[in-house]
Design a protein that fits this description.
By secondary structure, this protein is of the alpha/beta class. Helix content is 42%, strand content 15%. It contains eight helices and seven strands.
């Protein structure tokens, strides 16, 4: 099996690992990201412009996203698998102390960006009556935690949007999967803690987190299943992670 995959936020973490995995399996790859130098390096690494097409833009920018998606060259225009991976968390402050700009950035990226790319790609999948949309949700969409507030909310949206989209697509052969990873060592926490690498690293030390390659392997598996099978939702955690106990705390 081979085809064309589009991976948003593909310059690091889950996205980069997924682009590499599918490229190694003979797929053509479209990679989006904000960092042109990383996109250029990945294009060269994964086979050059005949095998890899890159798009440098901020997914939170509607005009830039629309232009990039409309400008896909013919050789890469028929997307078989869309991986909506671009997303971020910012801060861990409680809701009454958060930065409203950071809240809006998470909404613009995790929700609006995902919607824009999906809306651009989905009509072609329906017309061809094949395709697979893999949305990167999170365990945070199921299990809230202090300081998660808007990030948790965006991932709960991804879960419900994935389910509703699957309902809309009933009667077609287009598949939708909401993949919900737990603790995984990527740049995610560095971004969340605004560049504090030591603070980010402390989350992973001794916890044997998942790696981006693990998530890429899962994406490969769900998309490689027989066309009659749809994995609706899949939550994955490292063995060292589980659910938090219910909190009980005295009121001030």
């Amino acid at each position: 099996m081979s085809g064309t995959i589009l991976v948003t936020g593909g310059t690091s973490g889950f996205g980069a690992a997924t682009a590499q995995h599918f490229s190694e399996q003979g797929w053509k790859v479209v990679i989006t990201g904000r960092r042109r130098e990383r996109l250029d390096a990945m294009q060269e690494q994964l086979g050059g412009p005949e095998r890899v097409h890159t798009l440098a833009f901020d997914i939170a920018d509607r005009r830039a996203t629309d232009a990039a998606m409309a400008g896909l060259p013919e050789a890469f225009a028929d997307i078989d698998v869309l991986v909506n991976n671009a997303g971020l968390a910012l801060g861990r402050e409680p809701a009454h102390q958060c930065d409203l700009d950071e809240w809006e950035t998470m909404v613009d990226t995790n929700i609006k960006g995902l919607l824009r790319v999906t809306r651009a790609v989905l009509p072609g999948m329906v017309e061809r009556n094949r395709g697979h949309v893999v949305n990167l949700g999170s365990v945070a969409g199921n299990w809230p935690y202090p300081g998660g507030n808007v990030y948790c909310g965006t991932k709960a949206f991804v879960q419900q949007f994935s389910r509703a989209m699957r309902s809309d697509l009933q009667g077609t052969r287009v598949r939708v999967t909401n993949l919900e990873p737990g603790l995984c060592e990527t740049e995610f926490s560095v971004v969340r803690f605004r560049g504090d690498e030591d603070k980010a690293k402390s989350l992973y030390e001794g916890n044997d987190p998942m790696l981006p390659e693990d998530i890429a392997e899962i994406i490969w598996w769900v998309t490689s299943l027989p066309a009659r099978v749809n994995v609706n939702s899949l939550e994955v955690m490292p063995v060292t992670q589980s659910w938090a106990p219910l909190a009980v705390k005295p009121v001030r």
